[in-house]
């Protein structure tokens, strides 16, 4: 948790009042085993609570407001198939849609070479969809825009070029059970531009009604990686 610092034009200048809290299990205690507490997906619900997706031990939990970081995890009923996700390639992309339903996309569970499993639903009622995968990129986070469009952060990696990131916009009309979630590219980040292990995405309504987009990278406690926070403005 932290407070963003901006200049008069709304440009990001830094963060302040940062706090780090351990994520809690269903009993209200910090996780002591990394595999059990490997949180990879998060979004805020309409009541101020957070829904968190965990990888390796695949599951979802709700953390109640007004201070979700101090709450115990309340297990939620997710799609039955998520328990069969690859250990380190489960649900990293999760977004609450304007109607209150949730869309989730698997990072590695493929229907075919170019199609990943996705689910749309809530409260234990889930139906499958498909996310169109292109090239070496895989989805690592997603957030819904105010108009219902879905913004997806994708990541690619190879030993020669390192990390690359791509933002994909899926139109709201395509987001329904049984559909193919196929978007268009908005932006791509890779060498020689700033690049790192970006796997966190957030959106915010700007004071003038526009949309701010935030990307955050995970350094994985590796000396060659960095934790970076970037802010962009979505141009209609």
Would you give an account of this structure?
The strands form five sheets. This protein has a five-stranded mixed β-sheet with strand order 7-8-9-10-14, with no helix packed on it. Strands 3-4-5-6 form a four-stranded antiparallel β-sheet, with no helix packed on it. It has about 240 residues and is an all-beta fold. It has strands at about 5, 10-15, 40-45, 50-55, 60-65, 75, 90-95, 100-110, 115-120, 125-130, 140-145, 150-160, 160-170, 180, 185-190, 200-205, 210-215, 230-235. The two termini are about 30 Å apart. A hairpin with a 5-residue loop joins strand 1 and strand 2 (about 10-15).
Helix share bin: under 10%
Unreliable spans: none
Number of helices: 0
Indicate the overall shape.
globular
**CATH classification, class level:** Mainly Beta
**Straight-line N-to-C gap:** 29 Å
Map the helices and strands.
Layout: E1 3-6, E2 12-16, E3 39-44, E4 50-54, E5 59-63, E6 74-76, E7 91-96, E8 102-112, E9 115-122, E10 125-132, E11 138-144, E12 150-158, E13 162-170, E14 180-181, E15 184-189, E16 198-205, E17 211-217, E18 229-234
Descriptors for this entry?
mainly beta; five-stranded mixed beta sheet; four-stranded antiparallel beta sheet; 18 strands; 49% strand; globular
Summary of the model, kept short:
The chain is mostly beta strands and 236 residues long.
